[in-house]
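Two proteins, back to back. First:
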Amino acid sequence: MHERKLMRRRIFLNLATTTAAGFFFPGFFWSLGFGATKRRYELAAESVLPYDIRQAPPEVREAYRFAITNREILRYIPCYCGCGEEGHTSNASCYLKDYSTPGNLLFDRMSLN
């Protein structure tokens, strides 16, 4: 019984200390790993893009570069722009043809429009 009281007291003191530290030092919770984490994904080199895609706005070029190195992620995201009629199976299809391989990149120009 006495051990339970001690354990409750320790838990209370830990929570109180953590809460106080978060109040007086706003960055404290971030240092513990709480909050949003910024993810960073690899992008393919811009030099692998065809000339017409390299002339597109920076956001479009970055989307193509992301699609090259993170194609497996994009395959889980459906495309809602109505390109299913063109045979697209996922968001990855909007940037690279489904039968494209890492050694033979075949780009879909749909995202340039």
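And the second protein:
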Amino acid sequence: MTANRPIDVAGAEHLLEGFMANRKARTLQAYWADLNDFAGFVGQAPAQAIAQLLGGGGEAAARRVLEFAVDRRSQGFAAATVQRRLATLRALTRFALNQSVLEWSLEPPDNEQLEEAVRARSASTVPYLFPRHPGEIDRLDVQHYALRETLGVNHLAPIEPPRHALDVGCGTGQWAFELCHRYPDAMVVGLDLVPSKPGWPPGYRYVRANLLDGLPFAANLFDFVYQRLLVVALPVDAWPAAVAELVRVTRPGGWVELLEPIFGVQDAGPAVEQFNRLAYGIAAARGLDVGRVVYDSLDGYLRAAGLEDVVRQEVSLPIGDWGGRVGTFLATDMRVTQAQFSAVLQTQAGISEEECRTLVQRAQEECEQRRMSCSFAIAYGRKPD
């Protein structure tokens, strides 16, 4: 089994069985505690987590283990506990190497490297514009239903039934769940910083990672890579490298598809315009695109990353009951977005709670009275054989 070939769950279970064989009770207990903690970090069962770790290749495994260690140190785990976790993962990869399952072994970060990574993480923030909130699940699903209703499908790329598909910035996981139902033989991976909502279909796997740090997968792995609605999460300067990373993990002959909106709405009233101007200021301070650079560049990003047969399509979606089901969906999305973002305006834009409440009320009245809309661009392309 080569370093770049995915290791299946059955193979990982067999490997773990051999690794744990003939261990003393205390060692066995410690090893399982370490591996269960790592599995909990990635949101999978232990065998699934190990299959993913070992199947991605040495560099991807090192990145994932560093991310795991940084997360545990940032949560207050003692340095000795984290190093024990890492030692267990290193011992497992060396066992796999001795069993000819791998062609590499893991070298986890030492204490100095780990503390430096923890400091770097503390000094930076993920620039996602909207606050984490229970209602974010409903809001993202409403966006999904509006786009699916408009397009009639969940993707435009003319893919064959995939064996492996990846949804980058998967949010609730709804798009990926539906892909699993359409292609029941596929393994669909959802990648995000926050776990997907409950109810995972059998073919779904969640991976916790930040695209800005690189994807924790081997090259040429996925038949279809999908990404959408990350204009509020990726700094505008990061887009070319991010798209190149999507292409890197796509197999030759596979497809990459992107979908992004213009930041803002068309035919907005004065209250919506004021709300948006305040949001633009906060977004710009985080390096996000507050114009239409990303919107206009999606197909160019794909071509620059080496894709062929690139196609671009633009759609306009109504906001408000005048636009039927889609308009109602997006009106709901706007109301929830404005309500959630009010706390950000109060803390970062100097708006009082009363001013913010009045502004949101006026904006929602405009949503009912005006015919506003928003524009989305979709671009997809094929990686050369």
